[in-house]
Amino acid sequence: MNSCWQIRENRKKLLVFFNGWGMDSRPFAHLRSGSFDVLILYDYRSLSLPLEFSRDLENYQEIYILAWSLGVWVCQALGDIFPSQPVFSLALNGTGSPIHPRYGIPPAIFNTTLKKLSPAVLENFYGRMFSRTEETIGFLQNPPERPLSEQREELEFLQQRILAVPTSGQEQHFDAVLISKQDLIMPAQNQLRFWNSRCPCHLLTSGHFPFFRWQQWESILAEAGYG
Q1: Which residues of the chain fall short of a pLDDT of 70?
Q2: Gyration radius of the chain over CA positions
Q3: Please, are residues 14 and 62 in contact by the beta-carbon 8 Å criterion?
Q4: Largest alpha-carbon pair distance within the chain?
Q5: In this structure, what are the phi and psi dihedrals at residue 172, rounded to the nearest 5 degrees?
Q6: pLDDT in tens, 7-40
Q7: Is 27 exposed, middle or buried (0-12, 13-18, 19+ CB in 10 A)?
Q8: CB under 8 Å, gap of 24 or more: what pairs does 133-136 form?
Q9: Domains (ranges, CATH) in the chain?
C-alpha cells in the first residue's frame, strides 16, 4: 500500500482518504480544504500500511475517515489502525462485501473485468464511473498514472483477499454512508441492502465517481450530515 499527501500544512485535523482500485491522487487534485490535511492511501497490492503511517498521525488532534469504492473494504479489513477514535468516518459507494451478488459487485462482472483487463477495458470502466459525459472527459484529462500491470496485480490481490475473508459480518466502522443512485459499478440497490441495518444512508444523484460535484473535502462530509 502506498500513501501520498494531497494537503500537508501542519493543521490539527487530518482526513485519511482510502482511495478506490487503480487510483492515485491525480483525479482528486481539484479538491481543496480549509481545515484538513489530507492523506491518501492507494495501491492495494498488499494491506501493509506505509512504514511512516503511524508516525504521520501522531501530531493530529482529530482524525476523519473517508473511504470510497473498494477502499471501504480495505478500511474495514485493516481494523483499528488509528491512535484515537476518528471523529467522523464516511463510506462512499462501497460495502464490506464488495464482491457479492446482493451486497456488492456481482462476482461474474468482477471476474470478467479482471480476466479481460486491457487499456480498452480500463477506459470503458472509467466511462462507467460517471453519469455525465463531461465528467468522463474531465476525469480523462487527469487520470491516475498507474501502470496497467500494477492495476491488474491490485485487482487480483483484492479479489483473493475479499473472497477469502468476507467482512459482511464484521462490525462496521462508519458513521454514515453516501450512495450514488446512478452507480453502474457498485449497484445502488446492493449498497442499500448491505448498509440498511448498519448505518445511516444518504443518496446522491451521480455515478460511482461523484467527486466532481464538490470542490472541498469538507463538502463531502457535509453531504453526509457532518458539520
Answers
A1: 166-172
A2: 16
A3: yes
A4: 45
A5: -75, 150
A6: 999 999 999 999 999 999 999 999 999 999 999 9
A7: buried
A8: 135/207, 135/209, 135/212
A9: 2-223 (3.40.50.1820)
